[in-house]
Amino acid sequence: MAVSLSVPEADVALVRAASPLRPRVAVVLGSGLSGLADVATEAAVVGYGALEGFPRVGSVVGHAGKLVVGLLGGVPVVLFQGRAHQYQGVSALEAAYPTRLAAALGCDVLVVTNAAGGVVSRLSVGDLVVISDHMNLMGTNPLTGWPGPEGGFPFIPMRDAYDPELRAIMLDVAARQGVKVAEGVYAGLLGPSYETPAEVSMLAGLGADVVGMSTVPEVIAARALGLRVLGMSLVTNAAAGVGLSHAEVLEAGDKAATQLQRLVTEFVSRL
Ligand code: HPA
Question: What pTM, to 2 d.p., does this model score?
Fold first, then answer.
């Protein structure tokens, strides 16, 4: 069945009615990272529940479930506080809803953030990683059934999906702020179970640096819709770490979240 990447007109109208700002940049805030929305000024809030097209999922602690339109570093942005994950039972297309709404609102840059497990030993808890590339190991794709842009084909190139210029800007911002950031490859898995030690060895062998359960559908949809992407992971645990709990993932997020907020704020002001 043919599917569309568009979102209901009513959702676009609702966000436009909530704020006169016309966001250029969309930021998706991962587990424990939603604090960035609190530093936005002239903020208008829309609960996900009010958006017809936002997938209905049960709430997972750490995901606030609303979007904020406001100014970050003087730039109009839309911040998504929390996302729907495929492990909650939604499709890849639905998981990519923030990207699709961002495109419909006229954004041309998407910043995706996530909490991730560190696969390689050079990464420790609290490290920030600029995503250089991803591996889609979710077994799904948000473009399944999409006929492609008008008169085109759905075979979207994924080389440089994580925009080299945007990555360079973020690395420069981090250097100026004296924040250590690594670069690495993100492996996206379906979840919700964490990886076994054997799976983490496999991921390391494949060339992954971090692993998580989000981001990939959002980024694929962003490339299909022509948005440029910056991706950032916060390492909240060593993948296959012993006794890992969702609370620990959130706690690690708290510590580096402030750093990430400053980085993203300056990054956005440099666009
Ligand atoms: N694995 C997958 N997803 C994650 C992890 C992990 O170790 N940590 C945070 N999100």
Answer: 0.94
